[in-house]
Every structure is written in structure tokens, then in C-alpha cells.
Amino acid sequence: MPSYPANKINTPDEQINILQITDLHLSTPVTADDSSSMYSDGMVCQRSFESILQQALSKDIRCDLIIVTGDLVSQVTSTIYDHIFDVLQATHIPFACIAGNHDVTDESGKDLPFSQRKLIARPADSRLLSRHVIETEYWQLLLLDSSITGKIAGEITPTDIDWLCKRLSRCKKPALIALHHHIIPLDSDWIDTHMAKNTERFWEHMLPFEHLKVVISGHTHQEQVRQRQGVTVYSTPSTCYQFKPYEYDFAYDESALPGYRWLQLANNGTVASWVERLDT
Ligand SMILES: [Fe+2]
Ligand SMILES: [Fe+2]
């Protein structure tokens, strides 16, 4: 069984296939015989996460690494992480998890509008990674923790930027950055107020590094692709519920199914990526 977290990935050919899953939002570990209706949301997200994983790994593509980009839970409880890690370990595929806002903040009054909810700071589970490197033969994968305890928005801190600059100066392999919060506005006012802070400084510092090729994030619960400074920036759907793109105020997208993203990183620095949705 691969040890956690993934540090080095070797593949039998010259490309690496990454499965990105994000925004699992499990709120309670449930068992098959648990019929309690109070856990229905948790049950939906748990089943959706497990179905997504099963579907993705049954496809005709070799999965070399799973990256989980935050919001693993909607209620910070170590037993929920235990369950998620058990499910991921059982795949026998190397994986790595980073925190999202919901991994460091509980919200009380979830039936209330955002502005009226109370945010409660929580310590991150020790298994969630920060400033973590996964080496591959042709690529470097740089995982950041953009979450801020007790807040919905995130941040790329000056220390993160220093760390990235050092890494990218030292290693000229094509680079991928993974973090939870989005770093380019998605023209959806309510979610853009909760994106990562300090992104202009981030982009400024990334300018000299032409080998930074791709950034992946979660948080937005929708599929989006943007470009800036030659970097392709992907947002990925949640494994559970989706938000409506281009809405000024919060809105669920009832028509969008749970999803996940594949990234194929080739030895020449090119990237192929696409989203798949849960079969109905
Ligand atoms: Fe989320
Ligand atoms: Fe989030």
C-alpha cells in the first residue's frame, strides 16, 4: 500500500495521470444500515464521493495519483477524515489532500444566508498538507494550503510565495500548483468575494517562471478554465453539489451532476485535462 502522503510518483510511461477530486463535504460518517434522516445531506455527499471514486477508477485510464483539493468535510470531526482516508487508502493509489475553508471552519446556522452564519475556527486535521512537493520524473507538483482558520476566503501568503519562488527557481521541471481557493475571479460575485487573497502579488511573482504550466483548485463547485501569463487555471466540480456559474448571489446548480477532473501531464510540459460527471 502506498504510504501517505505521496512524495514521489514513477510511471511506466512518460506521462502522469492525475485524478483531482474536490469539495467532498462529508458531514458525518454513515454506515449502510444508518437510516437516520438527520444525516441525509451527509449521506448524499458520502455516497456521491464513493460513487465518483469508483466510477473514475473503473475507466480505461491508469490513475497514478489522486489529489484532493479541500473541503473534505462540512463538519470538522476526525472520524469523518478517518473514513475518507480509509476509502482513499483502499484504492492503493498514492494520494495527497489539502485543506479548504470547511476543513478549518465550522459554520453554525447553515439554513441562514451566508452573512448571518457564525464562523467557528477549527484546527486542521494533521493529515492535510501544506507546502508539499510531489516529485515526478518530468513534473513537480506543488501543493499549498490556502485556507484561513475561521474564514471562508483563502490566501496565498507571502511565505507561500517565497516557498513557490524558491522551488521554481531551483527546479526547472514543468510545474503544477494545487490549492483550494480560486485565484482568478469567475464572474460570480458571491464566490469571488471568497477567493484567495493576495493573488495579484502571486501572479507578479510567478511572471519569471515560464515552466509554471497549470493551477488546479476547488471551492467554486463548478467547471471553469482560465488562462493568465501562459498558465492554465482549472476549477473543478464538487464530488457532491454544484454552484451555478456567473450568478451574482449564491445559487445551487441543480442541473449539474457531481464531477471530477483528469489531468494528463506529458513529458514535454503539455497538459490535457477534462471533467467527467457521475453517470446517472
Ligand atoms: Fe466547497
Ligand atoms: Fe471551499
Short description:
This protein has 280 residues and is an alpha/beta fold.
Characterise the protein shown here.
The protein is an alpha/beta fold. It is built from 5 helices and 16 strands. The strands form 4 sheets. The chain has a 7-stranded mixed beta sheet with strand order 1-7-8-10-12-14-13, with no helix packed on it. It has a 5-stranded mixed beta sheet with strand order 4-3-2-15-16, with helices on one face. Strands 5-6 form a two-stranded antiparallel ribbon. Helix 3 (158-170) runs parallel beside helix 5 (199-206). The mean pLDDT is 94. The structure holds fe (ii) ion (2 copies).
How many H/I helical runs? 5
Order of helices and strands: EEHEHEEEEEEHEHEHEEEEE
Low-confidence sequence ranges: none
Radius of gyration (Å)? 18 Å
Globular, elongated, flat, extended or rod-shaped: what is the shape? Answer: globular
Listed once per kind, the bound small molecules are:
fe (ii) ion
Question: What separation lies between the terminal Cα atoms?
Answer: 31 Å
Kindly state the percentage of residues in helix: 10-25%
Which structural category fits the helices and strands? alpha/beta
What is the mean predicted local confidence, pLDDT? 94
* Strands side by side in the biggest sheet: 1-7-8-10-12-14-13
Count of DSSP strands = 16
Please state roughly what percent of the residues sit in beta strands, choosing from under 5%, 5-15%, 15-25%, 25-35%, 35-45% or over 45%. 25-35%
The profile of the biggest β sheet is: 7 strands, mixed
